[in-house]
Prior knowledge:
Blueprint: H1 2-23, H2 33-143
Amino acid sequence: MWNAGKYIFAFVLFVFCALPSICSAESTYTITETQLSQLESQLTALQTDSAELLTLLDESETDLSEARQQLTESRNQIALLREQLNALKAESETARLSLEASNRELQSALESVQKLEARRKRTERQRDFWEVLAGALGIFAAVK
Length: 144
């Protein structure tokens, strides 16, 4: 009887030892060597692709960094050009005002010249009149 108890005890002990593998949630898979080779080649391809993608990512980051720098430079140039444009607008406005003042002075000078020309013509007419009158009086006095 004692021998039967040993066997029952050994059987229960065996069941308890095997219990974790029986109740385990993990499944066991078996694959063939061909499938393993395919998986390894796919893994190698994925690693190669991953390395290439990382290289492309680094290049893209470099390009992005350069583009940001160029954008900053462009913004600085735009700001400088706006300042120059505003300065040129101010100079243009000053030149326009100066030109308007010069135009008014020129118009005033033209009016003065026209008045002097009219006065000169009137003076010439008066002189011609007095010369004709003096000649006529001289002829009249000589005839008498």
